[in-house]
Every structure is written in C-alpha cells, then in structure tokens.
Amino acid sequence: MFEKILIANRGEIACRVIESARALGVRTVAVYSDADAAARHVAMADEAVHIGGPAPADSYLRKDAIIAAAKETGAQAIHPGYGFLSENPDFVDAVEAAGLTFIGPSARAIRAMGLKDAAKALMEKAGVPVVPGYHGSDQGDDGLARAAGDIGYPVLIKAVAGGGGKGMRLVEQPDDFADALASARSEAETAFGNPDVLVEKYIQQPRHIEVQVFGDGKHAVHLFERDCSLQRRHQKVIEEAPAPGMTEEMRTAMGRAATRAAEAIGYKGAGTVEFIVDGANGLRPDGFWFMEMNTRLQVEHPVTEAITGVDLVEWQLRVAAGEPLPAAQEDLTITGHSFEARMYAEDVPAGFLPATGTLSHLAFPSFARADTGVRSGDTISPHYDPMIAKIVTHGPTRSIALKRLSRALAETEVAGTVTNLAFLGALAAHEGFAAGEVDTGLIARDIDQLAAAPNASDAAIAWAALVALGLDDAPGPLSDFTLWGVLRRSVTLQHADDEMTLIVASEGGTTGRIQQVTLPSGATVSVTYDGGWRIDGNPVPRHHRSAKRITVFDGYGQIFDLIDPLDRAAVAGAGGNLIEAPMPGLVKAMLATQGQEVTAGTRLAVLEAMKMEHALTAPRDGVVAEVLVDQGAQVEAGAPLIRLEDEE
Questions:
Q1: What is the pLDDT of residues 71-129, one digit of tens each?
Q2: What is the pLDDT of residues 520-551, one digit of tens each?
Q3: Which of 181, 186, 8 is nearest to 91 (CA)?
Q4: CA-CA distances (angstroms) from residue 410 to 77, 291, 454?
Q5: Cβ proximity of 475 and 532 under 8 Å
Q6: Cα–Cα distance measured from residue 157 to residue 199, given in angstroms and rounded to the nearest whole number
Q7: What residues contact residue 484 under an 8 Å CB cut-off, 6+ apart?
Q8: For labelling, which of 85, 167, 450, 520 has a CA lying 20 to 30 Å from the CA of 476?
Q9: Active-site residue (options: 16, 251, 296, 318)
C-alpha cells in the first residue's frame, strides 16, 4: 500500500478520498487554488500545496504543477477524483513518466472511451448493444442533417468529448436541426475544446441506468446498477440503487455487457458503463443500449457503496497499489436500497440560476450520509460547480429509503445562500417517482409544480418576526413589562417578492410568556413560552440569524430580510432599464450594441458561470442606451451590463 498520495481535485470528492485514505493509514496531500486556501479539503489533508489562481485553467488543470507538488511532497501516487484531469490521458502519461502511479485506468483505456463515436464502434465489436446513430468523421452541416434524417426524428446531438449534458441538444423537427447543431457545437467548444458531435436516435421514454464496474487490467466485476433517470437538462438530480423494476434476467444481461466493455479495453480501477434503456414496456434484456463509459469514479458512487457495503475508493487504492480485485463476482450482493440527492446553491424559481454566498450555517441530520466539501463559514465560489453536498440515505426497501431521504432533505439546514432543497423535496414526494415510474422526462413534464417555491407557514412568519425583534431568547422576570398594558411592536420583513409588516403584542405583567403575532392576513399566531417557545403546542422551528437576514428552517429554509422602511427608496433600483448579471461570471458574448432596437426576449448577452452558459434577454421592448461592459469581462452578481433608454 502507498505511504502517501496526492489528490488532484477539490471539494467533496477530495474530502471523500482523504477519508478512505486515512482509514487505510495512507497520508494525503491536497492541492489548492487561491480561492480554496481555507477550503475543507485543505484542512483535512496532512499536507497542502498551492498550485495557482482560482480559475481551473490556472490551478486544477495545471498538470505540471500537480505532478511537481506530488514529487516535492514525496507522494507516490495521484488520485484524480472526478472532473478536471480525471479523464485526461495526457495527464496519465505525464504522471507515469514522472515515476508516479495514477490511481485509475490506463491512458490507453481512457483514450478508447474518450470519444463517444470511437467508443461506440469499439463496443459494437465487443458485442455490447449500441444505440442507432451517426458516429462518423463527416462533421459538415449537411452531412449531419442527412444522418439525422436517416436515423429518424427525434434525434439527440451530443458532443463527442466530455459529458455532464454539455454540448447536448434534443431536436424533434428537421427545421430545428441547424440552430441546435450550432448551439451544441459552441457549448462543446467552450467546455471541451472540441466542437465535434455525434447524432443518435432519441428514445421516447428513456431511462438512464448505469452499471458500476471495477477491473484489475485483465478481469472485471460489476457492482450492480444505478438508476440515474431523474434528470434536468441531462444533469442528474437524484440517483438510486438498485434500479426500480429491475429483473434478475436484465440485471445479469447488463452486468455481463458492462464487464465485457471493461475487459475489452483492459480496464483498471473504478468505472461506469452508462446505458440508455427503453422504459416504455418494462425493463427487458433487449431494451438497453450503450451510451458511454466514464473512466473514473462517479459522483453517485455512494449509492453503490450503500447497497454493497464496498468502499470504492479503498478498492481504487488497493488495486492501484498492485493488489488483485478484492472480491469475485459471486461474492458481491445487494442489500436494501439507497438514494442520493445533489444539493446545489441555486435559485430554482429564478430558473435554476447558480448562486454564490457565504454559508453562515450548514448542518445535516445524523441519520443520513452527507458528502460535502464545505462547512459553515465557507463561501460558494463562482469559479467551480455550486454543489454543496450529496445527501445519501439507505433502507431495507425502496419505500423506506425514500422516506428517509424526504426526512433528511427536510432536516438539512442551510443559511447564507439559496438552495434547491425544496425542489429535491418535491421530487422525493412525487407520486410517480415514489411508485418507481421514472424516466428522464419526468422533471420536464412536471417542472412548474416541482420548481414552485414553497409558501412560508404562519408559524415560520411569526417566528421570524420574533427573531427580528430579538424576542427569541428565554424571557426574564421583567420581560415585556410595561405600566400601560400590552406592549406592541411592528416589524417589516421581506420574504421572496413580498414585503410584510407584522404586529407583535407582548403580554404585560411579570410573566412575559405570550407573544401574539398579527400577520398581514389579519390572522393571529400565539407563541408561548413554557421552558421553550412553542406555537400551537409544537416547538418553534430552528433558525439562524446573520445581520438582517433570518433563515427559518421550516419548508426547506425560508429566508426573511429585516427591512428598515426608511431604506425603501434606496433599494428601488433602476426600474426596468438595467440588465444586471444574475450571478458572478464571464461575459462570454456581448450581443447588444448602443442604439439597437430590441423587443422583449431579445438575447443581449451570454454569461458563462459555473461551467454553464446563460442567455440574458431584454425585459421589454426598447432601445439600448449603453453597453456597460466589454465582452470577456469578469463581473460580479448584480453588476450592470446593459442600460435601456427610459420608457416614454
């Protein structure tokens, strides 16, 4: 076994690798950018080396700096995590040339699976079923359009390099193909430096089921399947293992296909073979096709660990150190069911915009596994993926595991940024999902219902008012004492788009035990103290206060801002004239020009943030009065980008 390894990554996966290495007695070296100097993974590691600026190209993608850090610290091997350099064969070559061990597959195996078109051809030769499609070298517009017509609409355009939904577009009609192709190429070029695409038949009721494989370079085993069908815009949201509705016949067929795929390329380490599955008529052995192979550890690996009892990172270290496969296929079994939900800092009602902010409070329920790279006090950086944590539950049945997930989401506490917790909670409560009726279109079909912001309860509003007035502590003997009867206070709070003024009446006398809160609706909520504050006999919800912001942990976190009425005019803004950056990012394209006449919805700029492109559009008809930033500028959230002329 290694004495010391370096983790060429950051965030939750770096922390995850450190935990398993520590359990094996292996020392760890972290690398970090300027933005991550105080990050959790840096604090957890035995040593840490600074490797550059906050942008990935200046730090986590710097092969030479990472290898130099490994050699300087005496690390014998490098674990790539996922993302960044994890599937870069040139990096593998460089690591091995430096006399170090790469904890993962060979460069040859990564290259074999790195381009989707070549990988599909290889899989066909290995006897793995492949989706009908065009994977050729002719990248001309006309040739690709003809291929789409031959395949039959609807089709899916996919970047041949990379993954994560980047460079992917669904096209349902021939007339839409040209625009979709141009958009997919642009995004692929930005994300992967390669604009080439392939075209595939789009399965009408698709399910995304993947198989975890593990190889030693000659032989491979599979650790059963994960269902990743719950997706939004090709991004996984909730994953589970095993797949609902899976039969032993199909599990055996998929497992054999996946191990054939791994053995065909001499795969070593942890990998995932992804299949698209036709879910229209139940799962059947002739209804699945190879999509791609991820030659690394997957984000969703914890659900496989939960049902198998296997530590996949431990296996990675042991096999990379020269040990044989830790288990034979017949030794591996499934116990129970597991779910993983990806919690992000994002504004769901605003269109899932990535968010930033300082996590003034972060806490997880003790009965759930939470893989995270951040702590209370850490900042969500605009330079990286805005994932806060992966919340994982396990139970003896799917129903119990899902109920535990629902409870874990409801009891997770986050303050300092908006999150997708309510969205995840709505998904966990979705009747179709609970029944196992899953496919990749479920979220899109019910997006309005799922993305709706939950209303704040009367109890949450009343408690926020008391917290805002500083009345949440235990009352003293003379609390709220007044000679003239009931003491009344008013407080103004901002919640979402609503401004509300509440009246709090405190009982006089020497008890100070009752607070009557009158809501804007006219309803009254009684908050009583009897060794602890209660509303209708129930304990008040937990909360966190930071300056003038109060987060009540009810309904997945309700945010209230204390408003000084005298400040209202100062926050009125610039009406509808300014187009502002909704998040920190890079102005990828500035499409507006001074004097341009625009209509509502006209694309004015493209902002690149957290590995995604976001179009900024005109809020109304008008004329561009001024372009305030140049293309290529790095801007902060709220920065004015374009000003429209005043409406007449």
A1: 999 999 999 999 999 999 999 999 999 999 999 999 999 999 987 778 888 898 888 99
A2: 999 999 999 988 999 988 999 999 999 899 99
A3: 8
A4: 40, 35, 12
A5: no
A6: 5
A7: none
A8: 520
A9: 296
